[in-house]
């Protein structure tokens, strides 16, 4: 191998390391990857940087301080959330043969939160170390007043999904944060998570009122924020055809285009480049009507959000 070849290889590797991808993958297996997420460096929102891994063998996995978890599905709108599974949690096949487990936790630097639609069921708790009592009816109206109680008479403990009638006893606990799970597992041997999955598949509904429009399923439901920016909306505009991303060094917004990265969108050039230097920041809270006011002629299917935008 001659010196010229070595130099070309070195320059190529430096170029790869110093820039981010201009094209972002939009799927991992059969799971769609949309803003604010990204599985390539520099794609999506920097709030979720390195939150996911994607491989042919393992599929899409969520990274957290407690480990990595297979992602079952992601819903982006109108109720942004994702579902993960944890093989260390108790399942029906375990019965009373309790396995060692680990408490689930989330990275507090991201915009992920545990959903209130999760029910955590604890097994084989040490008597006297856990406040075990039925939750009174007023807990539905004032859940914070009953947050410390683990309910042995909860519906799910009497009707464990897909389990035989001889399933071991448990108590249901609704933690305010993942720290509560760690504390409970110092007093109980194992636990599992059940979330309430909507039957409203495809938006058609099943005609049943709450709570009869949901069924329990094993897994952890995690809700997430969508940090919508005007720059990102312009970048994703059909005329622009870009993908929202960020500079991997400064974490500033970048519109990722096939021809290279831009600061606004993939069709701004020429005089627009000078205008970008005079941008000023602002913040607006609004719904899709207000988004359409800033970008007339466009329609957006977005939930109520807090948006940071740049005026040009």
UniProtKB/TrEMBL annotation:
Establish whether keyword Transport is in the entry. no
Limits of the Wall-associated receptor kinase galacturonan-binding domain: 24-77
* One function term, GO molecular function aspect: polysaccharide binding
Q: Report the domain of life of the source organism.
A: Eukaryota
What does UniProt list as this organism's lineage? Answer: Eukaryota, Viridiplantae, Streptophyta, Embryophyta, Tracheophyta
Where is it mostly found?
membrane
Q: Provide this UniProt record's keywords sorted from A to Z.
A: Glycoprotein, Signal
What name goes with this protein? Answer: Wall-associated receptor kinase galacturonan-binding domain-containing protein
Enumerate the InterPro entries for this protein.
WAK_assoc_C (IPR032872), WAK_GUB (IPR025287)
Q: Which residues form the signal peptide?
A: 1-19
GO cellular component terms attached to this protein's record: membrane
Topology term for the membrane: Single-pass membrane protein
The protein's organism comes out as: Acorus gramineus (Dwarf sweet flag)
Subcellular location per UniProt equals:
Membrane
Enumerate the spans annotated as Wall-associated receptor kinase C-terminal domain: 219-259
């Amino acid at each position: 191998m001659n010196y010229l070849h070595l130099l070309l290889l070195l320059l190529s590797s430096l170029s790869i390391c110093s820039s981010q991808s201009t094209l972002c993958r939009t799927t991992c297996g059969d799971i769609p990857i949309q803003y604010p997420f990204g599985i390539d460096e520099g794609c999506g929102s920097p709030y979720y940087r390195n939150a996911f891994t994607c491989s042919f063998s393992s599929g899409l996995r969520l990274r957290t301080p407690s480990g990595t978890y297979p992602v079952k599905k992601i819903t982006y709108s109108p109720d942004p959330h994702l579902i993960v599974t944890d093989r260390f949690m108790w399942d029906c096949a375990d019965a009373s043969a309790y396995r060692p487990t680990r408490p689930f936790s989330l990275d507090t630097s991201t915009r992920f939160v545990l959903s209130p639609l999760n029910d955590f069921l604890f097994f084989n708790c040490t008597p006297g170390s856990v406040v075990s009592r039925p939750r009174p009816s007023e807990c539905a109206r004032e859940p914070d007043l009953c947050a410390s109680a683990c309910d042995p008479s909860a519906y799910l403990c009497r009707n464990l999904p897909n389990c035989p009638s001889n399933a071991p006893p448990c108590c249901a606990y609704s933690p305010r944060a993942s720290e509560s799970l760690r504390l409970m597992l110092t007093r109980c041997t194992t636990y599992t998570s059940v979330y309430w999955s909507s039957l409203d598949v495809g938006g058609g509904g099943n005609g049943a009122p709450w709570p009869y429009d949901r069924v329990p399923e094993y897994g952890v439901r995690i809700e997430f924020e969508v940090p919508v920016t005007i720059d990102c909306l312009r970048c994703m505009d059909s005329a622009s055809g870009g993908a929202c991303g960020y500079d991997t060094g400064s974490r500033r917004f970048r519109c990722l285009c096939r021809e290279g990265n831009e600061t606004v969108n993939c069709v701004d050039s020429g005089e627009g480049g000078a205008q970008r230097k005079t941008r000023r920041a602002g913040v607006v809270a609004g719904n899709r009507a207000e988004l359409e006011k800033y970008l007339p002629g466009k329609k957006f299917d977005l939930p109520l959000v807090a948006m940071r935008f740049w005026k040009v």
